[in-house]
Design a protein that fits this description.
This protein is α/β, with parallel strands linked by helices. The protein has eight helices and twelve strands. The strands form three sheets. Strands 1-2-3-4-7-8-9-12 form an eight-stranded parallel barrel, surrounded by four helices.
């Protein structure tokens, strides 16, 4: 039996990652593991942000052992990546069996090309079998990437893609943009990215729009259109932001629901 909570993820950054540059009201001290505990979600996507954390990542991952699923970035915030980092993450997956995937954040350039080539992704796909386990190759896709004709060729090589609406005001177009996303990426699994701060305008996420994100995502989960929801980010969860606190309560209420997927034909 699966519960709705089993499909929830927290987006993890090292504590304090968003203290500068986003007009967040005060500094954060919350770690990624504490963020997962605070929201009461069982899965984490850990993304390197401005070269933090530094390698090796082993000790960070020890704190994630109680979690069901852990995904580590091989392309961090801003599309930063390296051969050494990618190799280290695959080595990490051999040591920690709850690592179930690797993630490419900010993968697409403004022109819709990838920070890694199609050939590099094909090579990465050959490394996804680790000790008999198949890791998922996952990626960030923004709604403003969907009009670039080149995006589809990269998404064909991904197991799962997340969709994000950069400006909160654009959330009124969630259904239209998601339908477009389904056409651009018909084969890969999909996750809904839910910002809890309006990073596009450096302002608090309005609770009414947070509610739209969460309730729309829950309906898409029930309908089988998405495989999960991601809440961003751990490094704003201890600031008593209204949208974060509303989301925490919503997860508490919705997370215990038995998930019965009704496939739309």
């Amino acid at each position: 039996m699966e519960y709705v909570r089993d499909k929830f993820w927290i987006w993890g950054h090292e504590s304090g990652s968003h203290d500068k540059g986003w007009d967040i009201p005060k500094p954060s001290r919350m770690t990624p593991a504490e963020g997962a505990f605070y929201l009461d979600v069982p899965n984490i996507i850990m993304i390197r942000y401005e070269d933090k954390p530094s390698m090796p990542f082993d000790q960070y991952t020890i704190a994630f052992r109680p979690l069901k699923q852990v995904v580590w970035s091989i392309t961090g915030a801003g599309g930063v990546t390296s051969d050494d980092e990618r190799k280290h993450v695959f080595d990490l997956a051999r040591k920690f069996p709850n690592i179930t995937g690797v993630f490419m954040d900010d993968f697409f350039t403004g022109a819709g090309e990838g920070v890694l080539s199609v050939e590099q992704l094909q090579a990465i796909r050959k490394e996804l079998i680790v000790d008999g386990r198949k890791l998922d190759l996952m990626v960030t896709t923004y709604t403003h990437n969907l009009n670039a004709p080149s995006v589809g060729k990269y998404l064909e090589l991904c197991d799962k893609a997340s969709i994000w609406t950069w400006k909160a005001s654009d959330l009124v177009d969630m259904e239209m943009n998601f339908a477009k996303f389904e056409k651009v990426a018909p084969k890969c699994g999909k996750l809904l990215g839910c910002y809890m701060w309006d990073y596009g305008t450096h302002l608090p996420m309005p609770v009414d729009l947070m509610k739209i994100q969460c309730e729309t995502g829950l309906q898409w989960l029930r309908d089988g259109r998405i495989e999960g929801m991601i809440f961003l980010a751990s490094c704003i969860c201890d600031l008593e932001l209204e949208a974060v606190e509303w989301t925490r309560q919503w997860i508490s209420e919705a997370g215990g629901e038995t998930l019965k997927i009704r496939k739309i034909l």
